Amino acid sequence: TEWKKGASIGVGSYGTVFLARDEDTGSLMAVKEILISEETDSAIREATREVDLLRSLKHENIVKYLGCHVDNKAQTLSIFTEWVPGGSLEHNRKLFGGNERVVRRFTNQLLSGVAYLHSKNIIHHDIKPANILVDQNGVVKIADFGSSRLINSATLSSGSTRSLHGTPNYMAPEVIKQSSGRSRKADIWSIGCTVLRLLTGGPLWGDRHFDSQAALLYYIANLQEVPPLPEGLSPEAQKFISACLQIDPVLRPSAAELLKSAF
After folding, report:
1. What is the pLDDT of residue 24?
2. Residue 151 has what pLDDT?
3. Which residue ranges form the domains of the chain, and what is each CATH number?
4. What is the pLDDT at residue 63?
5. Which residues does the annotation place in the binding site for ATP?
6. Mean pLDDT computed over 127-151
7. Going by C-beta distance under 8 Å and a sequence separation of 6 or more, which residues neighbour residue 172?
8. Which one of 120, 153, 185, 250 is least enclosed by Cβ atoms within 10 Å?
9. CA 177 to chain centre
10. What are phi and psi of 18, to 5 degrees?
11. Is the model's pTM score more than 0.85?
12. Using 50, 70 and 90 to split pLDDT, how confident is the model at 50?
């Protein structure tokens, strides 16, 4: 399809996101541009297959994938998705100011989308408020769930290579330690951190300061127990977050199980 790139609307995992217009229909969409190195035909075919898979996913609470394009000259992989005009929960966090009733509504939609992805054997790898969009009707749309799959399909440029998929404040201990393969339960930990952020504005470790990202990663990787949750949370919220933040991933409930919780 012919398309025209507009203004940058954010920097997501692995690449920059732009607003774009479909020249055939006039509709708006989001496009993420990812730098790739010397791509091979097989890598391009694999990336295209991944996008075809992602396009087949249909759920109210996940962003729709529309297609992809490889620009050999610019050495970029462009991934097209629906544009969600409301912005992210991180961007809009102050609008609902930790209102538990609103956060509960968003959380249930998040869990519904994640449960669907997990049922399709897709692990998000980077759940956080910045990757949870909300449309003008207050409907949550999970974004960026295909990026790590596509990155693994194509060859990243050296400037974009990342050894760990995810964002430190939302990464499970076992992911940082790389003690086991990435599982659905790592997404559950990230959901707990996300809900805590939406309700309190802070990360799990509160006011604790870390001099570097490496120090933060070391702290999370070596947690023996989860720090006490902030005061002011309802018993239901405390129970929900604590269930997500079990150090042992085996003890964390699934997204489908969390949907049945009181929160």
Report:
1. 86
2. 56
3. 3-82 (3.30.200.20), 93-258 (1.10.510.10)
4. 96
5. 32
6. 86
7. 185, 186, 189, 190, 249
8. 250
9. 20
10. -120, 155
11. yes
12. confident
What is the identity of the amino acid at 143?
A
**Which residue positions form the known binding site?**
32
**Residues designated as active site:** 126
Q: Find where tokens 């490496």 sit.
A: 214
47 near 154, Cβ under 8 Å?
yes
Q: What percent of the chain has pLDDT over 90?
A: 53
Alpha carbon distance 125, 186 (integer Å):
7
Largest distance between two CA atoms of the chain: 56
Tokens representing 16? 């920059």
